[in-house]
């Protein structure tokens, strides 16, 4: 579903933020992307979703190169950034309908999914209110619902659990598992290693722009906790 080949990205005047990264996310995978601050996670994620240009390598989504046909790639991808920037002057429901229109979601699917996810995140009663009146967590829930209503083949999330209350985090984990059981793929960054360990079937660890290990969670962590493996790799590699 997502293939990253020899991906390399430098910012103007800086060293390589990501250097020769290769990764494959298959249908049904929940792939956790972990690394210390500044390791290159957001740079990779923003390039995968077509927000950031890159000079070397290629990224394919569902077999299509993001460089050759970015619109086709975006049509099947949903992206939830770490700090979603929504339209404050719209109500929650207006925003969801705007996204539904962009992705040509039918009226029936739209109503069903907004009800399903709105109820799951306990935000249905607030959807008629202006986004400017929402708390940070409510904005994050709205961004998540807007990503889910177009039923993406690939869901990409940057630090999705930061700012969510425990109940919302629990709901999101259940939805992520459900999506992947139904054949979508998820690629997400996180610093919450115990969540990554429980939720992800695959893990990649990045350090200073280079992947230092990746693969099935049980192979990456062996008999140890993911936290122990991560700390050891980050210290010793
Ligand atoms: N707009 C930018 N201009 C210049 N350098 C940047 C820019 N954005 C990121 N970088 C640099 O690229 C490297 C990777 O940053 P990135 O944001 O991808 O890390 P990250 O793994 O997402 O970190 P965090 O966990 O703190 O969010 C860092 O050295 C950072 O300073």
UniProtKB/TrEMBL annotation:
Cross-referenced SUPFAM superfamilies: P-loop containing nucleoside triphosphate hydrolases
Listed CDD domains: ABC_DR_subfamily_A (cd03230)
Superkingdom of the source species: Bacteria
ABC transporter domain segment(s): 2-233
InterPro entries, alphabetized: AAA+_ATPase, ABC_transporter-like_ATP-bd, ABC_transporter-like_CS, ABC_Transporter_VariousFunc, P-loop_NTPase
Keywords tagged on the record: ATP-binding, Nucleotide-binding, Transport
GO MF annotation terms: ATP binding; ATP hydrolysis activity
Name of the protein in its database record: ABC transporter ATP-binding protein
